[in-house]
Amino acid sequence: MTVKEYIMDKIANGPIHMTLLDPDKQSAEDAAKIAVKCKNAGTDAFMIGGSTGITTENLDETALAIKEATGLPVIYFPAGPHAISSKVDAMFYMSLVNSNDLNLVIRAQAFASLYVKKIGVETMSMGYIVCEPGMKVGEVGQADLVKRGDIKTAVSYALGCELMGMEFVYLEAGSGADEPISPEMIKAVKDEISIPLIVGGGISTPEAAITAKLAGADVIVTGTFVERCRDDNMLRNVISAAKN
Ligand code: 1GP
């Protein structure tokens, strides 16, 4: 079964949760310890990546450690072509569609394509839409941020991604955002597209996870919260709130 089939099977039964771990923020060993807690709390898959400090070495080590500790799929969530891991189960082949930097829209993807084909890692195409506040990825990604209230622009980008053949859309508020993507924006995008909708950035409470889920997110991503959370009950509450 491919990772995409695994995801599609799961979301056919309702929203799922993915845990994002940044290989630059902790050792592979510590990432695996967090991953086990998240697995026990019900997470469905792991994404690994970050805006800065990612190397093929820390990616490989983190991917292998999480896979060995949990047996769940590990998906690379890349910030660029400078580091690509052959140890992940799949990678999002993504375009930051509202970047002013053409490298992040298509050039990096072109640059990496022959290598990615050669190593044979599964790819899942994704339109990545960075919204306010955008945080680090908004800055590094030179995003023309979608304004919090500008639902029409978010919907237009998302539908444009679908019509261009992308397999997933990701609405991103930015890691550590004060306010996650609004439920109004999630709902409006979900109503217009038929590909799975991933939502992340600033989701750190059960209430925020439930709000995103009820608004129509198919995949809810939490990163900062799981990396910081030392309370297993709270971890379980947030992850289970994100799921069906
Ligand atoms: C970042 O959307 C993800 O790409 C996760 O954000 O770190 O705020 O959970 P947080």
What does this structure look like?
The protein has ten helices and eight strands. It is an alpha/beta fold and 244 residues long. It has an eight-stranded parallel β-barrel with strand order 1-2-3-4-5-6-7-8, surrounded by eight helices. α7 packs parallel to α8 (206-215). The longest helix has 18 residues, at 102-119. It is globular, with a radius of gyration of 16 Å. The relative contact order is 0.16. The mean pLDDT is 97. Bound molecules: SN-glycerol-1-phosphate. The site of SN-glycerol-1-phosphate has 14 residues, from β8 and α9.
Report the radius of gyration as a whole number of Å: 16 Å
Q: Shape from CA axes? A: globular
Instruction: Report the β-strand fraction as a percent range.
Output: 15-25%
Structural class computed from helices and strand pairing? alpha/beta
**What compounds are bound to the protein?**
SN-glycerol-1-phosphate
In DSSP terms (H or I, runs of 4 or more residues), the helix count works out at 10
Secondary-structure element string: HEHEHEEHEHHEHEHEHH
Query: Termini distance?
Result: 22 Å
Question: Mean pLDDT across all residues, rounded?
Answer: 97
Number of strands: 8
Q: Strand order across the biggest sheet?
A: 1-2-3-4-5-6-7-8
Q: What's the helical proportion of residues?
A: 40-55%
What summary fits the major beta sheet? 8 strands, parallel, barrel
Give unreliable regions as ranges. Answer: none
